[in-house]
Amino acid sequence: MIKHDIVIVGGGLAGLRAALEARRAGVDVAVISKLFPLRSHSCMAQGGLNAALGNHPDSRSDSPEVHAFDTVKGSDYLADQDAVEIMTRDGVEIVYEMERWGCPWSRFDDGSIAQRPFGGQSFPRTCYGADKTGLYLLQTLYEQCVRSEVRFYDEFLVVSLVVRDGRCFGAVAYEVANGAIHAIEARVLLLATGGCGRLFSHTSNSLTSTGFGTALAYLAGVPLKDMEFFQFHPTTLVGHGTTITEGLRGQGAYLFNGAGERFMERYVSNAVMERAPRDIVARAVQTEINSGRGIGGERYVHLDVRHLGEEKLQTMFPGIIEVCQEFRKIDPIREMIPVAPGAHYTMGGIDVNADGETEVDGLYAAGECACVSVHGANRLGGNSLLDTLVFGRRTGRAIVEYLGRARGAPPAAGAADAVRSAEENLAKLVAGSGTEDPTALRRRMNLLMDESVTVYREDGALARTVEGIRDLQERYTRMRPIYGGRRFNYDLIWSLELRGTLLLAEVVAAGARIRKESRGSHYRTDYPERDDASWLKHTLAYFRPEGPEFRGKPVTITKWSPQERRY
Ligand SMILES: Cc1cc2nc3c(=O)[nH]c(=O)nc-3n(C[C@H](O)[C@H](O)[C@H](O)COP(=O)(O)OP(=O)(O)OC[C@H]3O[C@@H](n4cnc5c(N)ncnc54)[C@H](O)[C@@H]3O)c2cc1C
Predict the structure, then answer these.
(1) Which of 52, 195, 276, 382 has a beta carbon 3.0–4.6 Å from 280's, enabling a disulfide?
(2) H or E segment to which residue 524 belongs
(3) Would you please indicate which residues are annotated as catalytic (active-site) residues?
(4) What pTM value is reported for the model?
(5) 114: which DSSP letter?
(6) What's the confidence (pLDDT) of residue 415?
(7) CB 215 within 8 A of CB 94
C-alpha cells in the first residue's frame, strides 16, 4: 500500500507545480507518473508563455487586464472571466518565480526576460526560452521538486480511482516495470494527466497523450466540460504532426498557398494576417486546401520563414530547424516548410473551479486534463503553459488549505475491492474473449475522428462518428487475448487505456453534434453563426452506460459582454 496525504497523478508542469507548492507548505506529497516526469508532453512546448511583463519595446502599455481581454475575446466569450482575470494577474509573478528557480528564459540586451508576439495579442507578451520553453520550465520545476523531497513513483500507471459516496479515497496503480498492482491511499488526489490529442491520428501530441486520466474522472462520476472544443494547430509539420511554433508567425513568417498567394489577406485584416488566433488561421489553411489551393493541389500549404534570416532562426528557433531537418530533410533557412492543421490542444476537460476542485470531495484536477475554464472555445497560443503553472500552484495551495480543514485521515475505504477489480480487468484482457485487435480499433477511432470532428464539422458526419465509436466500444469487449507478461507490457497498457480514449472520443463527437452553432474552434458548416441566445453556456458531460448525458452550465461574465469577434 502506497500512502500519502496528497497524491498527484502526472509529472508534467501542472502536477509538478502543484506538488512543489504543497511540499513547500510542509505536506507529504507524492507524484505518480506513467512516464519519467521529464518525458511528459509539457517538454514539447516550444513557443512560450504569456504574461504582461511589459518588457518588449512595443508592450510598455500592456497589463494583466489587456491580457485578460485578449484571452476572453480569443475564447469567443466562452471562458469564465473571473478565472481568466486570476490567470493573467498571477501570470506575472509566475514568470519571475520560475526565473528565481533558475529557468533559462531568453533575454533582451538589457537583461530583461524577452517577449515575442503571438496570435490574438494586443501587445507582444510571450516569454520564451529559445523554442524549448516547456523543456526548460519542466526541468526547472523537477529540480525544485527533487530538492524539496517530493516523493516520485515513476512509470506507475493509475488505472482506477477509489470513489465512494461522493468522496475520493485514492487510486489503484499498475507498476510498468513489473506489473505489480498497488493500492494508493490519499487524503487528496490531484489529476494532472494532460490532454487527449491521440483521439486523432494527425496530432502534435505525444503517443502518451491518450486522455486516460480524464476518462478515469469521467467514469468516477465527475462531469467533463466543453469537450467538443478541440484546438487544431494551423501549422503542424506534414507527415509528422509536430508543431511549427506560432512564434515564427509572430516574428513575421508568411503562409503561401499553391498559387503563391499570401492567402491570409482573404480572411483577416492586413494588420493581422498570419498573427490571427489559431482557430481562424486553421480554418483559412483548411479552406485553401479544401478548395484545391494546397501546394500542387495537395493537402498542405507552405510556411515561409526564410526572410527572417539565418541568425534569428538559429538563435530563436534551433529546435524547429532540427525538427525540419530530422523529419522532413528540409532546411527552413533555405526552403519553405510544408504545414497543415493538426489536432493540438484539449480545451475541455474535467470540470473544476479556479481552485481545482471537482464535484467529488478530495478529488482535484489541474493542467490540460482540467477545464477551469480559461480558454473557452479557443485557446490563445502561450496561454496553456501559463494555465498549468498558475492553476497548478493555486490548486496546490487550495489542497493544503483543504487538508487543514478536513479532520483525520479517511478510512481506507474500498481499496481492497478496487485492487481486486483492477486485477480482474487485466485478467479479462489477457484471457481475451474474441478476435478484435486493439490497434485496429484505435486506427478506426482515429480515422472517424479525423474525418468528422475536425476544423469543419457537420451533423451527418458527426452522427456517423458517434455511431462508429459506439460500435468500437462494443467491439472492445470482444478483443483478442492480450499478451500477459508483467514487464514493460505496452500491449496490455495501451489496450487498457484504449477503453478510456474510446469514451472520450464519444464525448467529443457527441458534444460537437449537439452544439448547434459555431464558436471558436468549433465550426459547424450547417450552423455557421455563433448563437449566444442558445449556446453561451458550457456543456457538461456525465458518464452513463448508454452514452454521455449532457447538461448546460452558465458562463461567468465579469467585465466584457460578448461582442462579434473580429481581427
Ligand atoms: C507540441 C506541443 C507544443 C506546445 N507548445 C506550447 C507553447 O509553446 N505554449 C503553451 O502555452 N502551450 C503549448 N503547448 C500546450 C502545453 O504544452 C500543454 O498543454 C501542457 O504542457 C500540459 O501540461 P500538463 O502538466 O497538463 O500535462 P502533460 O505535460 O501532458 O503531463 C501529463 C502527465 O500525466 C501523466 N499521466 C497521464 N496519465 C496517467 C495515468 N493514468 N497514470 C499516471 N500518470 C499519468 C504523464 O506521465 C505525464 O507526466 C504545446 C503542446 C504541444 C503538444
Answers:
(1) 276
(2) strand 523-524
(3) 233, 249
(4) 0.97
(5) P
(6) 83
(7) no
